[in-house]
Amino acid sequence: MKLWGGKQYYTLALSLPQDRGLVLRDIVNLDVDRKWLLPKNIVKTEKGIKWDVSGKGYASQQDRARTLDQKHTTVPKSRMITKVNFVADNGASVGILNWDEVEALQGLPKGYTDLGENNRIEKRGATLGNAFNVDVIAHILSFMKF
């Protein structure tokens, strides 16, 4: 039991959902036109690559990328379209995921967050960013009795 603001909240011990084993290569369509970055001072790490644009000695979220054979991390809400990157097979180019690919990362069908005429980047990014993956929500709800 957790107390917060004078109210009682209960925590549940749930198992983790089954890992579907998806990696970026399963989601990324290399045949679509996309924005590519050619960062300098690339450092290869266990988690992909990073580069220091600011000169501060560390890589901010938009200055890191995963390889196509890795899973991606959290989809951020703020400036999401510049922070969801992957490394091309050449190891030097960094591609920015398009909306359909980010939707796939979250377990959503293609075009699910397309807001038509109100399709502003901030709104679509807020819809996808800092959200639970569909498979996680389905797993949590599977324990509830309706």
Major sheet summary line? 6 strands, mixed
Return the structural class: alpha+beta
Give the H and E element order: EEHEEEEEEHHH
CATH topology: DNA Methylase, Chain A, domain 2
- Residue-averaged pLDDT, rounded? 79
* Main CATH class: Alpha Beta
Fold and architecture overview:
With 146 residues, this protein is α+β, with helices and mostly antiparallel strands. The chain has one domain: DNA Methylase, Chain A, domain 2 (Alpha-Beta Complex). The protein contains four helices and eight strands, in the order E-E-H-E-E-E-E-E-E-H-H-H. It has helices spanning 24-27, 99-105, 121-128, 134-141, and strands spanning 2-4, 7-9, 36-37, 43-45, 48-50, 64-67, 85-87, 94-96. The strands form two sheets. A six-stranded mixed sheet has the order 3-8-7-6-5-4, with no helix packed on it. The protein is globular. The protein starts with a strand and ends in a 5-residue tail after the last helix.
Topology:
Elements: E1 2-4, E2 7-9, H1 24-27, E3 36-37, E4 43-45, E5 48-50, E6 64-67, E7 85-87, E8 94-96, H2 99-105, H3 121-128, H4 134-141
Parallel strand pairs: 6-7
Antiparallel strand pairs: 1-2, 3-8, 4-5, 5-6, 7-8
